[in-house]
Design a protein that fits this description.
Layout: H1 17-31, H2 34-41, E1 45-48, E2 51-55, H3 63-78, E3 84-87, H4 94-102, E4 105-108, H5 114-118, E5 125-128, H6 135-144, E6 147-150, H7 154-168, E7 172-176, H8 182-191, E8 199-202, H9 205-217, H10 221-227, H11 238-241, E9 245-249, H12 255-273, H13 278-281, E10 282-284, H14 290-302, E11 309-313, H15 319-329, E12 334-337, E13 343-345, E14 348-353, E15 358-363, E16 371-377, H16 383-396, H17 401-407
Parallel strand pairs: 2-16, 3-4, 3-5, 5-6, 7-8, 7-9, 9-10, 11-12, 11-16
Antiparallel strand pairs: 1-2, 13-14, 14-15
Helix pairs in contact: 1-3, 7-8, 9-12, 14-15
Length: 417
Amino acid sequence: MTTEAPTAPQKVNLRRPDIMTAVQAQVLSHYRSDLVERIRASGHILSAGDLTIKLAKEFGFCYGVERAIDLAYAARRAYPDRRIFLLGEIIHNPEVNDQLRRMGIVTIAGHPRDEEINQLRPEDIVIIPAFGTEVSTRRKLEEKGCLFVDTTCGDVMSVWKRVRQYSKDAVTSIIHGKARHEETMATTSQARASGAGHYLVVFTLAETDYVCDYIVNGNNKQEFLEKFKGAYSEGFDPDIHLEAIGVANQTTMLRGETEDVQRRLKAAMARKFGEGALAEHFRFFDTICGATQDRQDALEKLLREPPDLLLVIGGYNSSNTSHLAEMGEAKLPTYFIKNAAKMRSDHLILHYDQHRHAEVETRHWLPPGKVTVGITAGASCPNNLIEDAIRRLFELRGISVRELLAGGTASVNEQED
């Protein structure tokens, strides 16, 4: 009896000029903002009456997000009559994902996805999101023979390459990230792709310190395994697999925090094995996404002369956006909102509380009189949502953005470097 080999995934060029010209026009019509581009080109500041808006120098869609959206739109245009499925969310922005659903792209959500994948047919198209997907999921799709549209970000694939090398060298990957985030789940699967590698995910510096203490002093193994349940590879043994470690990260974490993680782990390995043997027991490579870092740097610069308050716009499950909110919260009143509708009035705003993992109400959030509002947005937030927020702020002060721009009553100033 012979067993048929899995059908290789089909490949198709979606970046043909006849497709992409139409796609880019459609994407611009959905997400572009002339107002944001005007403010950006004129110094990132817009003032009228007693309200001043300051935009961070870097915000909104990054190249990887734009590429993912372009490819999803291109798949729909190239195959208008085919069934198209998306593994989870293309990016962490509800408006963008809703738009794809309106285009007839069906989301395969949840874990495991076996039941939905079993219903796929070889002629179906499957979009892999910007976060990537787990090795096991990809293999199941390959067995189905579906056509792939792979939008995985290049920065994410760079982390995968590093983690696979750790695995090959019998080095355990210590991944700084959120264990249940799609990107981290895809990355951890790469550590296990050959079946021999191991990983451990740490999210906080407190968790990192716990691991460091275990490396140096040992401890109760069962307590360790219980503490990190769901965040380590099958068969992981801290008494064995923390002998040689390599640090990697979810690409959207705070750079400073990831650097702290690696410094603390490196110091622990030096105490355990000695500086002379460190190269045999510890590895680290910087795998923070460049766009994530650019947005963090731009916000840090904006906060040097802090506005009166900060709006952070983006999806509540967006890791890079949540870190921007954390940066703001450390210095000034910060409101993490997914769209302008959350600004109910100048007396009431609904915003996401990352500690409670829920929307909360804050009253009297927009102070009367002269006020400066800083605005930034995560890499998955389109410019049209940023424009909506700007327009809403001026509306709350009784100012029409259309009128103030048309009539020249707005003041646009060059922001200091």
